[in-house]
Amino acid sequence: MITVSQLTKTYGKKVQALRGVYLEIGSGMFGLVGPNGAGKTTLMRILAGLLRPTSGKVSVLGNDVTTGRGKLAVKSVLGYLPQELGLYPDLTALEFLEFVALLKGMTDRAERDKQINENLELVGLTSDARRKMRTFSGGMKRRVGIAQALLGSPQLLIVDEPTAGLDPEERVHLRNLLAEMAGRCTVILSTHIVEDISQSCSNLAIINMGQVLFRGSPRDIIENVRGKVWQVTTDGKRLDPGMAIVSTMQIQNGVQYRLVCERVDGWPAVPAEPNLEDGYIWLMQQARINQNNSK
Amino acid sequence: MKTLWQIFAIARNEFRFGLRRGAPVVVTAVIGLLLGAGILMSTGDNIQNVDVRMQQFTPNQVAQLAKNGITVEVWQFLSPGSFADLIAMDTTGAWGYIYLALLLLPIATAGTVPADRQFGVFELLRSTPIDGSTYLAGKVLGVIGLVVFIACFPFLLFLVALEGIMLKFIGFGIPLGLIMLHLKLSVMDGLPILASGAALGVLAGVAFQTRRKAILPGFITGLLGIFSWLSAFRFPVSSQNISDVAAYSIFQKYQSIWQALWDRLFKPDSFLSSYEFSLVGIGEPAVGIARVLIMYLVILAVLAGLFGLARLWLQWKENI
After folding, report:
1. For residues A44 and A50, what is the distance between their CA atoms, to the nearest angstrom?
2. Cross-strand bridge partners of residue A157
3. What is the pTM of this model?
4. Which chain A residues are Cβ-neighbours of B125 within 8 angstroms?
5. Which H or E element spans position B298?
6. Which tens digits make up the pLDDT trace of A106-161?
7. In whole angstroms, what is the distance from residue B197 CA to residue B179 CA?
8. Which B residues in the span 110-149 are in contact with A, Cβ-Cβ below 8 Å?
9. ipTM exceeding 0.90?
10. Could you tell me the end-to-end alpha-carbon distance of chain B, in angstroms, rounded to an integer?
11. Do A102 and B9 touch (CB under 8 A)?
C-alpha cells in the first residue's frame, strides 16, 4: 500500500511541481495520467526515493521514503524504469543486467543468471544479449530497461512512460507484460498516452499542474463524461477550434468530429459512446476552466 | 557482504567500461610515441658521447650503474644535462614525470561520475539500494584498477626499451634482479601517486553534470594535488638549476622513504645495503618508519576528507 498526503515539491523558489497531493495506491496496476509537465515524473521519483519532497508524507509499503533507512528499504524491493533511460553503450545487455542485479543485492550467481535469462526471454532479447547496447534501437533499449526493472522480483514496479519509442506491437507486448506483473506486485504506470492506461489499469489518477484532478477507475471517468460526448458531421466546414475536439476524421463528402462538451450549439450533433480519452479530455477542460475562473 | 558485491559491481563496470573505450591502448600509445620520439630525436647525439662519458667512470662503476638501470644520457630528452635514470617506469619521476600523473589523471578521471549522468544511467543507479559511499567507493576502486592496469603496459614497454638499449649500448641484458627491482619500485613509488591522482579526479568531478564541465575542476585538483604533495613530502633542495633538480631530488628522497619502509618490513637485516641503488640514498639519513606512516596517514586523511565531502554532496543534491 502506498499513501501520499499533503505532498509538495518545489524546485528552486518558483517552480511548484506538486501542490498538496493526496493519493492512495493499492495492489495491482495503477495508472498515473497527465499532460507533460503535470508532475507525474516528480511524483514517481519521490515514490521511488530518488527525490526529497519539500513537505508532506509518503509511505511506500510501510516505509517512510523521506528517511534514509526507509528510502533504502523501498529501493530494495523496487523495480524502476525512468523516463529518460540511459545505458552504457559499450556494455552488452547481459553485462548490464548482471551489473544491475548485483546492485540490487542478488549475490547468488545461479539465481542471478536464472532471472537475467528469464527476463531477457521475456522482453525478447535473448538472441541479442551479447551485443553491445550502442547497436540497439530505441525500442530494444527500452526493453533492456524493462528487463532490469523486473530483476530481483520487485514488490513495487514504477515505470515512467514505458511505451515511449516502442512500435505498436512492442507496446501491446509491454502492456501485457506489465498487466501480468500486476498480479504479483504493485505496478505504477505513468504515461500521457491514455490508451496505455485504458487497456491495462484498474485504477488511475489524473494529475495536472501538480494536483490530482481525479482518482478512481477508468469506468468512473467514462461515466463522468457520459452524455457529454458528441459526434458532428459537417460537409467540410470547420468547427470552431475553441471547441473541445477529441478527434477529426475526413470522410467521404465531409468531416466527422468528436466533441466533448455539455452541448453543441449550431451543429447537428449525435450523442456518442464515451471512452477513457473523452473522460480525460473532459477533466482537463474543466481544470482549465476552473483555473481561468480562479484568476 | 551485499555492500561489497555492490562495490565490486560498480568497480568492475567502471574498469570494463574504461577498457572498452580503448583507454589502455591510447595511453600506452601516447607514452610509447613520446619515448620513441625522444629516443629517435636525442639518442643519436647522446650515444656519440656515451664513450666519452663512460670514460669518466671505471668499468666497475659503469657495470654497477648499468646493473641498477642507470645509463648515461640515453634519454637525455627528458632531462637535459643530467643522468637519465632508467629505474622502472615510475623512475621517470626522477624528472618529475610521474608527478604529471597527479596533474593529468584527475583531468582524465574527473568525468567518471558525470559520465553516468551524461549517459542517463545515474537515475537508474540511484533507484537501486546503494548508498553514496558504496557508489563512490566502487567508482574510485574501478578507476584505480583501470589506471594500474593501464600502467602495466608502459611499464612493459619501458622494460623492452631498456632491454634493447642495454643490449645495444652496454652489451648485456637486464638482470632478473633489476627487473624485480623495477617492479618493486613501481609498486612502491608509482602506485600511490597513480591511485591518489585517479581518486582525486573522481571525487573532484562528483558535482558536475557533464564530462566536459569536469575537466577544469580536474585540472585545478591536479595542480593543487601536485603542490600539496610536494609541499607535504619534499625535502629541502639546494641547487643552481632548481627546475631540473627539484623534482629529481624530491622523487629520490620520496623513493628512499618507500625503500626504507619496504626494507623495514621485509628486509630488516639488510637495511643499509638497500641504499646502494639509490642515487641520493647513500649517506643520507635513514628515514624513520613513523615518518612513512605519517605520510600514509596524510594521504589517506586527505582522500577520506574529500570522499566525505563528495558523499555529502551526493546526499544533498542527489538524495543518494
Report:
1. 9
2. A79, A187
3. 0.79
4. 103
5. helix B289-313
6. 999 999 999 999 999 988 899 999 999 999 988 899 899 999 999 999 999 999 98
7. 25
8. 118-131
9. no
10. 20
11. yes
